[in-house]
């Protein structure tokens, strides 16, 4: 019987999973279909660069899939029926049946975190959101203010990139706690030096209560006017998996075991931001660094399942927090498998070069997803 593997989402996880599964199953009669709402691969880790006005490489999925045998369906997933093993789409062919499903639909900005963010804030989590922000920033007259909310990696990178690319803007970084929480003291000191050099105003311990048309209302009752608000305070996952009855956590990420197999539906695998994969000490942080390996391992697992072999633990681990501060500066903090910080920190140009090499290497890996270890 021909097995049909359907992968939902062509981000780092889904594209990796589809290509890896197809490669593993080459020469068998298994089919792999990849469903994605756009026909282009979105290099999400560069969306702050795009919003700032820089050009990104054009990466059509058909080019990245060339020679793999993976069939691409460009459509939005609107529902999953695990009973019938059917995925519903908003465009032709409107439905696609599966024997094995990989759920890798990624995440979006958590704009429901405070009132007004969904209506008034710009976001960076999707290509469409970043494109809207890019147009808005380009249209702003000089000396207009941009408030980036979120002291995590995305907020830090965005604030630095906007100010370096468009020095005429007044950029503020606003966060509820310390900026770069979780980084060691040396890394945090470097962040502050970089923001001082770039002339980005950092407002730590400033929780936002609401986003309005003219800026931020703070929890302490104060107001922070801004011409543009960018909401970069966390990601959230779409409700499709939960609506389909798949076991999910409170964030909507599908619950998977050590092999990335759904805890409720054994014919379903999860990878990337949309799956709660275990690393030593907890659940993987939503990141490209874990999403791509999860995708590759999910592709391996699917191929093993289809070939009647035992599944193996995916062995997902964290490696670092690799933060760009514009194009010429950065902070790289190396981590243990559980994401806790190790001592060494790379800063300045060395970190910027390292991050650029990792980012380029990720796209190279999307083109050549291995396997590198025979039988891995
Ligand atoms: C500005 C920015 C900078 C970042 N920097 C870093 C970094 O430096 N390092 C790092 O590790 N991580 C970084 N991240 C996080 C990283 O981008 C994500 O964790 C990663 O993209 C997750 O990969 P994924 O494959 O799970 O999801 P995605 O890359 O989001 O891919 C999901 C895919 O599914 C598609 N899709 C979604 N819903 C549907 C639907 N209903 N129907 C059809 N298709 C759908 C999307 O179009 C997309 O192609 C950054 C994120 C942002 C926004």
TrEMBL record:
Alphabetized InterPro entries for the sequence: FAD/NAD-bd_sf, FAD/NAD-binding_dom, NADH-Q_oxidoreductase
Sorted UniProt keywords: FAD, Flavoprotein, Oxidoreductase
Domain FAD/NAD(P)-binding: 3-280
Top-rank lineage group of the source organism: Bacteria
Required cofactor(s): FAD
Statement: the UniProt record of this protein carries the keyword Flavoprotein: yes
Record family assignment: Belongs to the NADH dehydrogenase family.
Name used for this protein in its record: FAD-dependent oxidoreductase
Naturally occurring in which organism (per UniProt): Planomonospora alba
Organism phylogeny: Bacteria, Bacillati, Actinomycetota, Actinomycetes, Streptosporangiales
């Amino acid at each position: 019987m021909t097995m049909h593997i359907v992968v939902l989402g062509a981000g780092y996880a889904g594209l990796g999973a589809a290509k890896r599964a197809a490669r593993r199953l080459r020469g068998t009669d298994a089919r792999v279909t990849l469903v994605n709402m756009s026909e282009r691969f979105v290099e999400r880790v560069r969306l702050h660069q795009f919003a700032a006005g820089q050009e990104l490489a054009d990466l059509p999925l058909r080019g990245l899939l060339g020679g793999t045998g993976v069939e691409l369906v460009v459509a939005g997933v609107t529902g999953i029926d695990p009973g019938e093993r059917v995925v519903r789409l908003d465009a032709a062919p409107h439905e696609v049946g599966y024997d094995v499903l990989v759920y890798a639909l990624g995440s979006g900005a958590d704009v429901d975190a405070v009132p007004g963010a969904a209506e008034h804030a710009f976001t960076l989590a999707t290509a469409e959101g970043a494109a809207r922000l890019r147009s808005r920033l380009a249209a702003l007259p000089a000396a207009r203010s941009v408030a980036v909310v979120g002291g995590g990696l995305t907020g830090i990178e965005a604030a630095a990139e906007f100010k370096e690319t468009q020095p005429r803007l007044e950029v503020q970084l606003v966060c509820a706690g310390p900026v770069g929480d979780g980084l060691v003291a040396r890394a945090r000191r470097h962040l502050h030096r970089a923001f001082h050099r770039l002339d980005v105003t950092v407002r730590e311990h400033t929780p936002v209560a609401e986003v309005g048309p003219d800026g931020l209302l703070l929890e302490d009752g104060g107001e922070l006017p801004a011409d543009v608000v960018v909401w970069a305070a966390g990601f959230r996952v779409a409700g499709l998996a939960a609506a389909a009855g798949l076991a999910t956590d409170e964030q909507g990420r599908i619950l998977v075991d050590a092999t990335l197999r759904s805890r409720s539906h054994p014919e379903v695998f999860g990878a990337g931001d949309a799956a709660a994969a275990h690393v030593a000490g907890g659940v993987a942080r939503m990141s490209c660094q874990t999403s791509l390996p999860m995708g590759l391992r999910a592709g391996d697992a699917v191929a093993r399942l289809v070939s009647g072999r035992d599944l193996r633990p995916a062995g997902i681990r964290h490696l670092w927090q690799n933060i760009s501060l514009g194009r010429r500066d950065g902070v790289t903090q190396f981590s243990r498998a559980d994401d806790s910080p190790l001592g060494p920190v790379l800063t300045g140009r060395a970190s910027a070069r390292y991050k650029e090499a990792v980012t380029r290497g990720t796209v190279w890996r999307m083109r050549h997803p291995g396997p590198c270890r025979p039988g891995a």
